[in-house]
């Protein structure tokens, strides 16, 4: 059984408390007050309330930590170790608002620019994916490992489709998508990057790629994949995924072949 640290206890308690209202509101999704935040980008009362609960709980337990949160932005800290929480209170908001039962809370702890703890919690299934640097990745109490598939032709990969407003990224995405579809067993798109990465860590997906993500979308999931024995990089094999927002997460056998596909992928003639 995994040894659960103080950070685990803090994050687990916060996620459990924040999830209560999410589960209640999901059952009444038609009655939620929803406002437009941007093109295809919605924020709900449930989202804001979950963030408030998480911030209160995490700040109570670790007042010296700063925050980087999807809705309320950055709260800087004078902590000499640069510790902060990176939080997405509701990853998969669009799924939530449409009554699709696939969404999660994502919480990561960063120290000196490095993710040292990460958790992705799916309230409806009570699946708590978590990892601590150097201690492995877990689903509740079960140790996780990325899949062992060696052939891309046998692999099932997950991705995210660029939303309205990202311009030319659609052409780049379609080029990557065609390259992958021609060379793997299947592609899935579920609409919650944090859960996609958690499922890579659990071996449910053989890999995941997406472009232009935010730190709160991927911070916890990156550590989960790494601690489960996987590789995480951008499309040029660089490690700066939190800065670039471009992420490829996969096992060591498939990492090179997937990056080669992306390198050779070209938009169709005539695409903008």
Measured on Cα atoms, how large is the radius of gyration? 18 Å
* Poorly predicted segments: none
Compute the average pLDDT: 91
- Report the end-to-end length measured between terminal Cα atoms: 53 Å
Oligomer: single chain
Structural class: alpha+beta
Helical stretch tally: 8
Percentage of residues in strands: 25-35%
Shape: globular
Summarize the main sheet: 8 strands, mixed
Brief digest:
The chain has helices at residues 6-26, 45-61, 93-97, 169-181, 193-201, 215-227, 241-244, 252-264; strands at residues 34-38, 41-44, 66-69, 73-75, 84-91, 104-111, 114-122, 127-132, 136-139, 142-143, 156-159, 186-188, 207-210, 231-233, 247-250. The protein is α+β, with helices and mostly antiparallel strands.
């Amino acid at each position: 059984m995994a040894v659960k640290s103080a950070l685990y206890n803090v994050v687990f308690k916060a996620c459990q408390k924040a999830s209560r209202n999410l589960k209640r509101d999901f059952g009444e999704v038609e009655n939620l007050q929803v406002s437009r935040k941007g093109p295809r980008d919605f924020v709900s009362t449930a989202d804001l309330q979950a963030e408030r609960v998480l911030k209160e709980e995490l700040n109570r337990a670790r007042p010296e930590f700063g925050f980087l949160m999807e809705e309320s932005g950055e709260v800087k800290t004078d902590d000499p170790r640069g510790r902060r929480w990176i939080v997405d209170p509701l990853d998969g908001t669009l799924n939530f608002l449409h009554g699709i039962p696939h969404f999660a809370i994502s919480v990561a702890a960063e120290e000196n620019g490095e993710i040292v703890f990460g958790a992705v919690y799916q309230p409806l299934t009570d699946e708590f994916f978590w990892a601590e640097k150097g201690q492995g990745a877990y689903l509740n109490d079960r140790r996780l490992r990325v899949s062992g598939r060696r052939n891309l032709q046998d692999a099932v990969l997950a991705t995210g489709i660029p939303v309205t407003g990202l311009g030319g990224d659609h052409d780049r995405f379609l080029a990557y998508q065609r390259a992958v579809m021609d060379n793997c067993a299947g592609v899935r798109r579920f609409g919650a990057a944090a859960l996609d990465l958690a499922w890579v860590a659990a071996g449910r997906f053989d890999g995941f790629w997406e472009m232009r993500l935010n730190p709160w979308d991927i911070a916890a999931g990156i550590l989960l994949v790494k601690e489960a024995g996987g590789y995480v990089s951008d499309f040029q094999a660089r490690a700066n995924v939190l800065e670039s927002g471009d992420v490829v997460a996969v096992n060591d056998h498939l990492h090179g072949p997937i990056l080669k596909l992306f390198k050779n992928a070209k938009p169709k003639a005539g695409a903008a």
